[in-house]
Specification:
The chain is an alpha/beta fold. The protein contains 15 helices and 15 strands. Helix 7 links the parallel strand 4 and strand 5.
Length: 408
Amino acid sequence: MKDAMVGAAAVSAAMPLALTRAASAEARLPVANQGVKIKIVTAEPLLVSYPGGGLWVLTRIRTDQGVEGIGEGFCESAESGRAVRTEILKIAASLIGTNPLGINAFVQKFKPLGKGRFWTSAIAAMEIAMWDIAGKVAGKPIYDLLGGALRTRIPVYQTWGAFDLERSIEKMAAAKARGIQMLKCDPFVTLPWRTVGERIQDLPRSEDIKATEKYLTRLRNVLGEDYKIGCDGHWRMSVEGAKQMAKAMEPFKPVFFEEPTTRPDDPDDLKAVAASTSIPISTGEHFETIEQAANAVASGVLSFIQPEVAWNCGILETLKMTSLAEGMGIRIATHGHVSPVAIRAASHINAVIPNLFFQEHPASSWQSWPETLFEPLDRLEDGHVILSDAPGLGMKLNEAELKKRLIA
């Protein structure tokens, strides 16, 4: 557990590293090195359905050179997806005729013009598409434009949320058999869902604690004592409630306790929970900007952060977060409740950062459909995503499938 007393000073020291890495990535773009002249001619949001009733918010940017890029903005529901689409349309109107390789300038211009998760998700959707174009123009994968890969085999973990116990056990045992080396669960199956930011004083009932202990006992019996298991609180507990649950979980040795309280990025909440337990604390999927990340990291108690590239303004902002974390000795486990587009964008980031732990990856869900909108899907081998050297993101949309699944 980190010493919280040095948090703010350490963040100040780490911030230049974060900004330098992002600037270095920008300098490698083709527009900086080669003076490439290319303009955006169309930029559009694409709401597409996926089996199970959900939707993804994709973007497609086309250029006058015939090069196009795809991106994704994060959404949690049909309502939030339409809100992100609305913000994308506001941005798109200003991009026509501009150079898609000016990625840093794009982020710096648009980031201050709005606020909230819909706005930052819209920026991310456009920014990822621009990186896809940049890679294609350069004839290189995005990770080469970010400084070059430290690895092209990305270790991944999978999540089986707040499902009932037996369903979770079945899915997790199957994932382990496929070579997945870490799994995340939500063992707090009897706790009610909450709103992020809500202030509550509730404490778990004895039956809530017993249900969690039953879940983790069963899980350990199936997966083994040494198998890596993360526990996601899904921002459902008060500080005191999270302390009680952490105490109950300690015998099961989870690798982290993620977003334990209803204010998942609040430094005071994080410090209070961390001081009560030996379990490492993690958070980060709700980060919208580097400033929010710095505030949480300044708590001095985080062992992992879990940024979501489709939510937090995109690849450059995520790189800043990973560098900030590196300066604090914090490891990265990128969030991944998204489509193959944002998952691939995260993989390119994870290829270049030195402080990677794992990448969250829902590949088993795609394979069970099977997913045919994206070509090619990630190749998984022994619990790792294998990145190719294809230019840009390294994938394209299946146009015939896209027509079937577009939502008005």
